[in-house]
Structure formats: C-alpha cells, structure tokens
C-alpha cells in the first residue's frame, strides 16, 4: 500500500517537502539574522533586554493558528505571510539563548580580553561569541524544530508544504493522505532536531563538553 | 458592513455575538485544561517514579520527546482517524503533548532536591513516603508548575487547531474568518481571545510559579 | 509562604477534581434522558446555519444537549461522520451530490426522482433517514448583474447563449473539469461556448462579477452575496445541473433512541425556501452575525415552527 501511495504521490511528496524546508529555512535564517545581533546588543542594556525578551516571549505564547490567521488581513495568503509568521516565532528561543549565552561568558575571560587590548567589538567577536556558541546553537536548534513543525500548519494560509497533504486528507477523508503527510513531516522534524543536535555538539568547544 | 472599518466591525461583532464567543471561549479553555489535568494526573506520579532511575527516565523522557516533535496538526489528524471527530480527539492530543513538560519537569524537580536535604530527612527518620510528601514534592512544586504552565499554553494552541476536526472552540471563528472574503474582523474576533487566553494563562501560572519558588530562595 | 503554598496546592487539587467530575459531560459520558446529540456540518456558512437551527430547535424543545461537529471539508467527510458514529445527524446533504458521489449512481435531472432514489438508497444501504428537503436547492447557477440582464434581455441560460461569444465567464475551478456536470458537459447540453472561461476560487466570483471583472459567473444559488450585490440568477432551463435539494439526514439509531426527534426535524420540511436561505446566508456573510445567532433569531421569529404557529 505504501508503494502505491509513493508512486501516485511521490513527486507531490518531494515538492511539498522542499516547500516546507524552504520556507522554514528562510524564516529561520531571518530569525538568526535579527535575533543574534539583537541578543548581543541587549547584553549592554539589561533593562531593555528584560522588556524585549518579555515581548518576544508573549509573541511566542500566541497560538500558531491565531498568528498565522492574523497574517491574512495584513499580508494576504501565500508563502510570504507564512514566512513572516514563522520568523516571528523563531525569534524568542534564539534571542533568549543569545542573551543568556553572552551574559554567561566568564567575566574573567572578558577582562583578559580587555587586558590584552581588544576593542569591545574584538572582544565580542573573538572571545564572547565563540564561548556563547553552544548556548546560541541550542536556541537555534529549538527554533528550527518549532519552525519546521509550525510550517505544517502554515499550509492553511497557502504556504504549501506537507500540511497540504494532511488538509486534503482531512477534507476529502482520505486516511492515506493524512498518513502520507504525517509520516514525512514527523521524520522531517526528527531529522532536523537530530541534525542540528549534532551540529550543536560539533560547535561546542572541547573545553566545555 | 463594508463601510465600517475593521475595528468598528470587530466592535459590532462582539456586541451582537458576545454570548456565542463566551461559550466558545469556555469550551476552548475547558478542553485545554482537561487534557493538561489528565496529563498531570499521570505525568506527575510517573515523573516521581522515574526520578533516581536513570535508565528508565532516559527511555520515558525520550519517548515523550519524540511525541513532542510530531507537528500538532499531524498528531491531531492521526488520532482523529482512531478516536473520531470531536473534542475527545483534541483532549487526547493535548494529553499527549502535555506529557513531556510535566514528566520532565517533575523529574528535574525531584532530581534537583539537594542530597543534603534528603539526607537530613532520612536522618530525622522519615519514611520514603514522608520524604516525598514533606521534602521532595514541596521543593519541586515550582518546577512542576512551570511544566504545567508550559503544557497549558501549548494546549490552548492545539485546541485552536482542534476546530479542524470538529471540536469547536475559538478556532471555529478563526476558520470562518479565513474562509470569508473580507474576514479581517472575524479573524481578529477569533484570534485575539485565543491569544489573550494563552497569554493570561501563561502570566497567571507564572505568577503562581514564582510564589512557589520563593521559600527556596531564602537563605 | 508555606501557608500560601498549601493554599495553592489544595486549590489546584479541588479545581482539578471538580473539572474531572464535570468533565464527563464533554467526553460524551451522559445519561439516556439527556443524551447528547451530535450534528455535523460543513465549513460553509449555509451548513453551519442549518446545523445551528437544528441544534437550537433540539435544545429548546427537548431535554437533549447538542454537540456540533463543525468544519467538515466535504460531503465525503460528512457521510463518513455518520457511518463511523462521530455524528448522529448531518445538517446539510445535497441530493445531487450524494447521488453521484456517495451512492455512485447515474445522475438524475428530475428533482422528485432524485429525492426518491436517495431516500430509499440511504435507508437500504446505511440505515439512515433522508428527510424531505428544507425547501431549497443549493445549486450551481449562472448569474449576471442586473444591467447585463437588461442589456441583453437575459432570463435563462439559453438566452445567455446568444451573446456568449462576447462574454468572459468566471467559474469555480473545481467545476471546470468536473466529470459529468462540468464545463465540457455544459457545452454539450447548451451548445455554446463563452469567449473566455476564467477558473477561480468559488468565493471570489461574486465580487468579481459585481466589480465588472467578469461578465457572467457561476456561483452558488443560495449565496448571500447574490442579495448584497443584487445579482440576477439565470434559469437553468435545460436542467443541466443536477438537483441539489438540501435535506437533513439522521441515523435510524438516533431516531429510535430519541423518538421525539423525528417529528421535531420534520417541522422544518419545506420551511426554508431559496429566498430565506439567501437572506440567512447574507446575515452571516455580510452582517457579521454568527450562524448560531442567526439560527436562533430565525427560530424565534417562527416560534420554533410549533403546530399552529404562523408559517
């Protein structure tokens, strides 16, 4: 039975998997580009950091269906509103972990850097970020898993992806489509989690491991 | 209606459909809470049981982790195939997703009780049950509450999706809004209460959690 | 602090047990007298209105509670919901759809014949009762603006044929290639072609017509926007579209378990005509009222269709 499903829907499956990866990746990259520098900058302004992280935290609590649906009156339907919503979701884990990671860098190391004559920027780039990397990576990994999972729902607002198979299955009562969408999407989420977990281990300096 | 802007439409909507929204709101909340409570009923004892049992805890938390990674829409649909349409499926799904936060946090809370305190307790002649009731659980309460809080927020999100399998709740309003041609006001009418429910639940349980933490912070 | 902690814990336990006890209700564990009846509906406005009318009728006139199983995606899911026991009543079934879709029989153009066939087939095959129609058929219908109708003297779909080569038609993308009653079959029956056929989402055809982007569109005959845009529906004089008379379908089991149900449901036979359905749809789609609210208003206006009430 699985074989017939694959022959009938095989190309669909590939296209939709690609769509889901594609919008997730874009959202995640945008999230990293915004949240990492922001997290680093916020370490210099602890009071503002509290507020910003609280706001991002609040956005995270919003149920995914609500956030996705809210995109429609603002941005219409399709891949772009989905990416925007997923981007918003990706922010908190990365932001919080960057902030915490940077803050937790041993002050002795920061002082040594200053002592060696490094400018603040050099200190950040050459000392603090490398030390904070494992924590930041953990945040990115968490975001990635969230984003891949939510991208499934995003198909409802026209983003494509494996969620399409599930919705079609629900609407036409085709259990094979439902299963055909569920298994790949679960495998995808598990693979991303596992893959980034490995990356996280690789990037952890041996000293900390 | 088209000559009113979205805000005015929203106000008009709530004026005329207020009791309906309230009904959907409470149904939504109840579904979420049932699932979480069921998970707590099973998850907390389970978490206590696997504390100090490393191999077992790895397995159980590993399984709960895998459940967590399955996208909720997928899980919901699969369970629907088994349990049918309606609230039963959503409660079952919420239950499953609430397991990890609750079990893991209970486990962590128990594990984090300092050995010194446990030793004192044993020294005072406490039985295992007394130890649990008077030392370990009270000290783990904050962390367990954090797990319940996490679970409830996720539950509210899952219940919203539950509208796709006929369970009702605020998701119904959101879906009607997305299907309509100028549904902006409807989407807001559904999405805002849902978001508020999640945020208020998060803040309230966070408040309780912090109050449960305080005694430990005292020297 | 210790006191607060104990207080919170005991509150939590109390709330928990209360909810669990009262929780048996939503989980479907009730007693026979106040049995919960489950009504399924599609995600369309019309279906939800009808489901809410049934729901309000039942809860108002009997001791029963009702749960709505909403947002079903198609007639297939609706059918499955009754077969699998997820629902007891389906609020909106369309004769034409079920004839070819569920029953897999040949399409019939005669509305009365179609009714007889589905009624018998559903009883024989599924032990379900197909009730007489509410009084309207939700069918595909060609429509134009009032101006276009006046300009070309259009009353029927055949009239449209005279000027079809000048017109652009917006149609449901699902319908275009539909087997048996799609565009190719249409061309055969009516013997003409449009200048251009533009497939689109069915929900968008009404505004497209009103805005002048299309000259003629194929929409649903009960849509509220026909009223709000003041569109003219052309008569299907060659009876191309199958009869989509709308009815309630209930499992024989629930009718047996709740004997009061059948006469209650029969109160609605023929009570909702096309104009009424359009108005109800309009109230939801245009006036921002929830189907539940519109349904209740409707029943109150007609005194729940009690015997001796005004028609």
TrEMBL record, chain A:
Alphabetical list of Gene3D superfamilies matching this protein: MetI-like
Membrane topology: Multi-pass membrane protein
Predominant localisation class: membrane
Domain ABC transmembrane type-1: 17-196
Subcellular compartments: Cell membrane; Membrane
Matching PROSITE patterns: ABC_TM1 (PS50928)
UniProt keyword DNA-binding, yes or no: no
Keyword Cytoplasm tagged: no
Stated name of the protein: Binding--dependent transport system inner membrane component family protein
Organism, scientific name: Latilactobacillus curvatus JCM 1096 = DSM 20019
Automatic annotation (TrEMBL), chain B:
Similarity field: Belongs to the binding-protein-dependent transport system permease family.
The name this protein goes by in its record: Binding--dependent transport system inner membrane component family protein
Keywords linked to the UniProt accession: Membrane, Transmembrane, Transmembrane helix, Transport
PANTHER family, sorted: GLYCINE BETAINE/L-PROLINE TRANSPORT SYSTEM PERMEASE PROTEIN PROW, OSMOPROTECTANT IMPORT PERMEASE PROTEIN OSMW
Ranges annotated as spanning the membrane: 29-51, 85-103, 139-165, 185-208
Gene Ontology cellular-component terms listed: plasma membrane
SUPFAM superfamilies: MetI-like
Annotated PROSITE patterns: ABC_TM1
Residues annotated as domain ABC transmembrane type-1: 25-205
Chief localization: membrane
One family name in Pfam for this protein: BPD_transp_1
Keyword match Iron: no
Membrane topology: Multi-pass membrane protein
GO biological process entries: glycine betaine transport; transmembrane transport
Subcellular localization, as worded in the UniProt entry: Cell membrane; Membrane
From TrEMBL, chain C:
InterPro entries reported in the protein's UniProt record: ABC_Gly_betaine_transp_sub-bd
One Gene Ontology CC term in the entry: ATP-binding cassette (ABC) transporter complex
Stretches assigned to the ABC-type glycine betaine transport system substrate-binding domain: 36-301
Top-level taxon of origin: Bacteria
Pfam families: OpuAC (PF04069)
Alphabetized GO MF terms: transmembrane transporter activity
Name used for this protein in its record: Osmoprotectant ABC transporter substrate-binding protein
Source organism of this protein record: Latilactobacillus curvatus
């Amino acid at each position: 039975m699985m074989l017939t499903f694959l022959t009938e829907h095989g190309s669909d499956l590939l296209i939709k998997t690609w769509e889901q990866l594609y919008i997730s990746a874009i959202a995640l990259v945008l999230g990293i580009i915004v949240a990492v520098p922001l997290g680093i900058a916020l370490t210099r302004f602890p009071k503002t950091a509290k507020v910003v992280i609280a706001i991002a935290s609040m956005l995270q609590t919003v149920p995914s269906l609500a956030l996705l649906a809210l995109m429609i009156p603002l941005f219409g339907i399709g891949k772009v509103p989905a990416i925007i919503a997923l981007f918003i979701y990706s922010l908190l884990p990365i932001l919080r972990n960057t902030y915490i990671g940077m803050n937790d860098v041993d002050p002795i190391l920061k002082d040594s850097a200053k002592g060696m004559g490094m400018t603040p920027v050099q200190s950040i780039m050459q000392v603090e970020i490398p030390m904070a990397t494992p924590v930041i990576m953990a945040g990115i990994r968490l975001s990635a898993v969230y984003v891949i999972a939510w991208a499934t729902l995003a198909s409802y607002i026209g983003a494509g992806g494996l969620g399409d198979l599930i919705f079609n299955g629900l609407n036409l009562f085709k259990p094979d489509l439902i299963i055909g969408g569920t298994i790949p999407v679960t495998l995808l989420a598990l693979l991303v989690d596992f893959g980034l977990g490995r990356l996280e281990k690789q990037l952890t300096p041996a000293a900390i491991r | 209606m088209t000559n009113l802007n979205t805000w005015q439409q929203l106000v008009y909507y709530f004026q005329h459909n207020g009791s309906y929204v309230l009904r959907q709101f409470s149904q939504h909340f109840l579904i979420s809470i049932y699932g979480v409570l069921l998970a707590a009923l099973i998850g907390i004892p389970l978490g206590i049981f696997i504390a100090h049992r490393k191999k077992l805890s790895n397995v159980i938390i590993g399984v709960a982790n895998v459940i967590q990674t399955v996208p909720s829409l997928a899980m919901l649909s699969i369970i629907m195939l088994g349990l049918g349409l309606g609230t039963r499926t959503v409660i079952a799904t919420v239950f499953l997703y609430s397991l990890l936060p609750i079990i893991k946090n209970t486990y962590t809370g128990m594990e984090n009780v300092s050995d010194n305190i446990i030793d004192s307790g044993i020294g005072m002649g406490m039985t295992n049950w007394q130890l649990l009731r008077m030392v370990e659980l009270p000290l783990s309460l904050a962390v367990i509450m954090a797990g319940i809080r996490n679970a409830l927020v996720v539950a509210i999100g899952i219940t919203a999706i539950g509208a796709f399998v006929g369970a009702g709740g605020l998701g119904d309003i959101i879906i009607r809004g997305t299907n309509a041609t100028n549904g902006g006001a409807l989407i807001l009418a559904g999405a805002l209460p849902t978001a508020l429910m999640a945020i208020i639940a998060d803040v309230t349980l966070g408040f309780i959690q912090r109050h449960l933490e305080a005694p430990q912070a005292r020297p | 602090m210790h006191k607060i902690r104990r207080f919170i814990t005991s509150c939590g336990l109390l709330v928990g047990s209360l909810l669990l006890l009262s929780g048996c209700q939503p989980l479907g564990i009730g007693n026979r007298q106040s049995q919960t009846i489950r009504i399924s509906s599609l995600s369309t406005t019309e279906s939800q209105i009808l489901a809410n009318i049934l729901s309000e009728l039942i809860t108002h006139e009997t001791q029963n509670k009702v749960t709505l199983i909403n947002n079903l995606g198609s007639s297939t899911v609706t059918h499955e919901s009754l077969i699998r026991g997820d629902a007891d009543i389906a609020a909106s079934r369309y004769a034409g759809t079920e004839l070819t879709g569920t029953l897999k029989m040949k399409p019939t153009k005669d509305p009365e014949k179609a009714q007889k066939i589905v009624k018998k087939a559903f009883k024989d095959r599924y032990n379900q009762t197909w009730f007489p129609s509410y009084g309207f058929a939700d069918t595909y219908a060609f429509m134009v603006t009032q101006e276009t109708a006046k300009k070309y003297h259009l009353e029927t779909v055949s009239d449209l044929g005279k000027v079809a080569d000048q017109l652009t038609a917006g149609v449901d993308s699902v319908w275009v290639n539909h087997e048996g009653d799609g565009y190719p079959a249409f061309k055969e029956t009516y013997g003409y072609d449009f200048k251009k056929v533009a497939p689109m989402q069915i929900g968008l055809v009404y505004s497209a017509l009103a805005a002048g982007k299309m000259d003629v569109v194929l929409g649903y005959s009960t849509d509220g926007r026909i009223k709000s845009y003041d569109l003219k529906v052309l008569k299907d004089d060659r009876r191309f579209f199958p009869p989509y008379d709308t009815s309630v379908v209930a499992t024989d089991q629930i009718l047996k378990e709740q004997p009061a149900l059948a006469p209650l449901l029969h109160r609605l036979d023929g009570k909702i005509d096309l104009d009424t359905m359009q108005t109800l749809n309009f109230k939801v789609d245009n006036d921002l009222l929830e189907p539940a609210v519109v349904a209740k208003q409707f029943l109150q206006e007609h005194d729940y269709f009690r015997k001796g009430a005004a028609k």
